[in-house]
Amino acid sequence: MPRRRPPYLLKETTRHGTTVWYVRKGAGPRIRIRGDYGSPEFMAAYQAAIEGKAEEPSPRAASGSFEWLLDRYRETGAWAALSVATRRQRQNIFHGVVAAAGRQPYASFTRAVIVAGREKRATTPAQARNFLDAMRGLFRWALDAGLVAVDPTAGVKNPRRAKGEGFPVWTEEEVERYEKRWPLGTRERVWLDVLLYTGLRRGDAVRLGRQHVREGVASIRTEKSGYMVEVAIPILPVLAATLSAGPTGDLAFICGERGKPLTKETFGNRFRTAARAAGVQKSAHGVRKIGATRAANAGATVSELEAIFGWQGGAMASLYTRAADRRRLARAAITKMDRNAG
Predict the structure, then answer these.
(1) Rounded to two decimals, what is the model's pTM?
(2) Neighbouring-strand partners of residue 218
(3) Residue pair 215/174 in contact by the 8 Å Cβ criterion
(4) Listing from the earlier edge strand, what are the strands of the sheet with 31-33?
(5) DSSP 8-state assignment for residue 39
(6) Which of 22, 234, 273, 314 could form a disulfide with 30 if both were Cys (CB 3.0 to 4.6 A apart)?
(7) Mean pLDDT, the chain, integer
(8) Rounded CA gap, 10 and 132, in Å?
């Protein structure tokens, strides 16, 4: 039986086919509810509107302003096609841009302005790249729609990535330390083993549940691919034992108190806390890395790694196979340095 819609919640569809939601009590004002229907952000905004605690609606953006252009963009299929996580990330970026220059004409956003925005965030290269990605998406759509004659983001280079390997990979000793602190039968053990024995990213791991498993194989479309790439992951006996011991949720193996599912952000924070309690100063993403390292060291090919982890193009998988090959070759060749060998 379909769930009843919460009271005072109105649904509308724009001319671009985008669904928007409002709260209106009696003859009062309509209050726009942001976020994806049913998400924690959506329900928090809905509750605030019902209780009269929502922010006052901003006046309609002036035609031709950056805020007006952004409002039009968020009504399009180009915006709707982005993953939930990407829309949330870009919404946060746009919020800052609107606060600083939302009333300015969007035509005033030249290449120099975009470069200045990148440089403003230069001390945090990831934020600078995310800013450029958000502005590129907006202005590429505006160019296709005929709203601008020139894309001001064209030719603007991404900041150089800092040297390093990104999220630090867990060691086998750290995995053992976590397992000792969180034995079978704890939620925290389920969290680790789902990550470790599926190779899924946080956003996919928190969605994985029994409904995805058929004949011992879990199949799920990955968030990062825009749900276009499906990975098929056999449930190993070690993971099956962990899931059987539980506790797990009704729709997701990874859960919080009372079996409630977790957003990937909440899960990331709670997993980090659980790792700290085990004396491990690393994140959930590092667990995915040790899974790839284990597979590569056991001889997994580039194609096999891509099938497990949902990568494409060979570049990411090759990082792991090359490292594993170097270790194997070194072990085989080291005796040749000993002139007394043989």
Answers:
(1) 0.57
(2) 213, 233
(3) no
(4) 9-13, 19-23, 31-33
(5) S
(6) 22
(7) 81
(8) 34
